[in-house]
Amino acid sequence: MTNPYSATQWLQLSMQQQGLLQPLGSLSELMQQLSYVQIDSINVVERAHHHVLHNRLADYSPAMLDEAMNDKTVFEYWSHAAAYLPIDDYRFSLYRKQQLQQGDKHWFEPEHKVMLEVKARITAEGPLKASQFTHNADIKNGSWWDWKPAKKALEQLFIQGELMVARRDKFQKVYDLTERVLPRNIDITIPSDTEYAQHLINRYLTAHGFGNLQQIQYLRKGLKPLLTKTLAQMCEQGEIAHFTGANAAANQGYFYQPKLTLPTSIPNKVWLLNPFDNLVIQRQKLKQWFGFDYQIEVYVPEAKRQYGYYSLPILWRDRFVGRVDVKADRKKQCLLLQQLSFEPDAFNNQGLDNFANEFTLGEVNDKDAFIAAFIDAIEHYAKFNHCQRWQLVQCNDKAMGKILVRASQHGIA
After folding, report:
1. Which of 277, 282, 255, 263 is CA-nearest to residue 200?
2. By the 8 A CB rule, do 52 and 274 touch?
3. Domain ranges of the chain
4. Which CATH architecture fits 193-256?
């Protein structure tokens, strides 16, 4: 079958499926729709998992995620990375846990003696953090792979399913026995191979609108034969549809759920997306389909960075138009836009006169409409980061930069 939609329409569908166009009513509903939210520790601004939810839920606050953990509507485990997942998907985490219990390796070789000691202490004392276990001070701790033995044991017990994260304390995991954390009504039947594959496929297509085999199995090893077989079966049964054609790489088929309907409209809105946002985390798809070559530069040496340490993709309407490197100066309560970089073809060539003096939308043209939406997005994001004002430091569009500097001086409404 040929591709039923244009690249722009697929982006619109992805935005719709990602909960960006019509925010869902509750955190629980959103988690079901997204299937996961990645956890990340970088805190130059509010952490990634909170930012992802902030973009999709009205009046979101980090306390809502803590409440969801306490209410046991979400749990922590590994998706393609550390993540929050809906508790209804718990049984599908058992598929990987069983493999690990049977000898598959996650990060390092299990140290069974230490694991027994760690588990025994938690059994006797209750929930504990890694920092509550002593270690040999003569052993130098370096990068994350040099974790002390107790920390390794905790993570191995967690990834195998014997421990769960009961809560976080100042971002540190607090571990407890799974039987003391998991609600009793949760299904703990280990899924079959086919059930697990169908779950991954349906979750991905529900959350993203469309995808290929590589994207569905993203950062999950050893699943290609099973997913290939299951995708073919689901196509034959009419549960999903398949296409090749424009924007589809050679020998790659794309899959989608036939019930999809295009959104009726796209608002004049700017979304400042997190680098770990579900919509942009698969960089090759972003580049191939939507023409946006994005890379987070946290891991790039400072001298080689083009766009800044923590640059957020800027999605305007249904176009990726640039990036903005952000940092919250918490002492001064100021959100710094350290580097605002627009794509060469981000806007048409119409002028900026309508925004030169008044900060209301005049005659609609691309740049004027964008500025109104961008200022609104920046103000909301600044408030989310507990900042009372924002400041533009550098911009690659001088005319746009001058207008935004003036706008920042008016303060946050």
Report:
1. 255
2. yes
3. 7-181, 193-256, 270-408
4. Orthogonal Bundle (1.10)
Evaluate the CA torsion angle 401, 271, 78, 132 in order and state its sign: positive
Residues 156/157/160/162 CA torsion (nearest 10 deg): 180
Q: What is the mean pLDDT of residues 72-95?
A: 96
Q: Measuring CA to CA, which residue among 272, 373, 319, 271 is closest to residue 6? A: 319
Which pLDDT score is estimated for 364? Answer: 41
Residue 127 has pLDDT above 50, yes or no: yes
d(CA 42, CA 81) in angstroms, rounded, equals 15
SS3 93: helix
Angle at 161 between CA 226 and CA 121, to 5 degrees: 165
**Whether 212 contacts 254, CB under 8 Å:** yes
pLDDT at 252 over 90: no
Alpha carbon distance 23, 18 (integer Å): 9
Q: CA-CA distance, 29 to 131, in Å (whole number)?
A: 34
d(CA 70, CA 155): 21
- What is the pLDDT at residue 3? 86
Range of lowest pLDDT (21-35, 96-110, 246-260, 315-329): 246-260
What type of residue is 317?
Answer: R
CATH number of this structure's domain 270-408: 3.40.630
